[in-house]
Write a structure and sequence with these properties.
Distance between the termini: 39 Å
Structural class: alpha+beta
Helix content: 25-40%
Largest sheet: 7 strands, mixed
Strand order of the largest sheet: 1-3-4-14-13-9-10
Shape: globular
Oligomer: single chain
Number of strands: 14
């Protein structure tokens, strides 16, 4: 697996892809630790990630997608999705980002092909992390204040955020947040949490929760939550290494069965540029779809 030194993300720069990598990225107010392992060594896989920063260094955007299938068989489709993600990643409103990805992916993918995706935006001036989930596994969050891990979803967000959930509505009122390529048009919802200093958020593709032990039992979300809760550390690199070591140990001598990506975000105390109040309000309104971009 290729390795790169630590990177500092600059305004309007985009990093990512669907190849093997282990990398630490520093962005305004947040650090990221990324470990991505395609099933077939030396080739791209179905896991795709991108990180960018824009808005004068105020906004950090992260996208993680998992194309159904694995290894080289889905490399071409993953490359197409990668191009779409790069095309739309600086669309400020995440729900419109998701809708654009879904529309183009649905028209290009073979029948039955789909991709789950997570789109996240960290807005440094207000310390909010905004999440849009398109059929993907729920992110897990470590709260430094509560010293505990929890799964993040729309229902739970109402208890921990001062920004309300928002939604772009299309033709279907009862169906929303499906994986990319399943149905078009479709609703996509997003929610925001207060991302406090020392907090961690774990993102992953389904290879982690579908990892089987020697008896064929899958880890599942509950098992992953139990695993991360047993890691008594808030060091981002150590947490990532210990999770992967536990996953490898659980699998034993069984070969890996899918592309695997794990991403950790950590809120830092690094200073960020301070925009005016008017600019901050305007940017938040655009991200939540309350103002046209």
């Amino acid at each position: 697996m290729s390795s790169q030194p630590e990177e500092t993300l600059h305004c309007m720069e985009i990093l990512g892809g669907n190849r093997a990598i282990r990398q630490t990225i520093h962005a305004p107010g947040v650090d990221l630790w990324i470990d991505s392992r395609p099933l077939e060594s030396g080739r791209g896989g179905g896991d795709v990630h991108y990180v960018s920063t824009c808005g004068g260094g105020q906004v950090t955007r992260l996208a993680l997608a998992d194309v159904a299938g694995h290894g080289g068989s889905v490399d071409g489709l993953a490359v197409f999705l990668r191009k779409l993600m790069r095309k739309y990643i600086n669309t400020l409103n995440q729900t419109r980002f998701a809708q654009a990805l879904n529309q183009e992916f649905a028209s290009a993918a073979e029948s039955g092909r789909f991709a789950t995706a997570l789109l996240l935006t960290y807005f440094a001036p207000t310390s909010h992390l905004i999440v849009c989930n398109a059929g993907h596994g729920r992110p897990l969050r470590y709260s430094a204040r509560q010293a505990d891990w929890e799964a993040l979803d729309l229902e739970r967000a109402g208890d921990c955020s001062s920004i309300k959930a928002s939604k772009v509505r299309y033709h279907f009122e009862r169906v929303s947040n499906l994986p990319l390529g399943v149905l078009d048009p479709i609703d996509y919802e997003q929610f925001a949490i207060d991302f406090e200093p020392g907090d961690l958020v774990l993102l992953y593709t389904d290879a982690l929760i579908e990892c089987e032990d020697i008896d064929g039992k899958q880890l599942g979300e509950a098992g992953l939550l139990s695993l991360v809760s047993s890691v008594r550390s808030t060091d981002m690199n150590e947490v990532g290494e210990r999770i992967l070591s536990a996953i490898d140990g659980r699998r034993g001598s069984k070969p890996e069965a899918d592309d695997r990506t794990l991403i950790l975000l950590k809120r830092t105390d690094a200073p960020v540029p301070g925009p005016s109040v008017i600019r901050t309000v305007s940017t938040v309104a655009k991200m939540l779809g309350l103002r046209r971009v």
